[in-house]
Amino acid sequence: MIESGHSLTTLLNRWVDAELLSQEQSQAIAYFEKNRGPHKDSRPSKAIALLGALTLTSGVGSLVAYNWGRFGDGVKLTAMGGLLAIACALLLHSQLRSPHSKTRFDVLALIVSGLSLGSLALISQVYAQEGELWQLLVFWCLLTAPLLAHTSSRFLQYYWFFGLWVSLVSATEDLTEVIELANSLRPTSGFTTALIEWTVGLGVSFLFARSKEPLRARVGKSLYTLHIIALGLVGSFTWLHSQPGVPILWLAGVAIATLVWLTTPLDADTLGWGTKNQVRQLILLGLFGALLPLGLSIDSRVGAFVSYGAFWSFAWFLSEKSQHQGLARLSVAALGLRILVASFELFDSLMITGCVLMGLGATVLFMVRKNWNSSLEEDGAS
Question: What is the pTM of this model?
Answer without folding.
Answer: 0.65
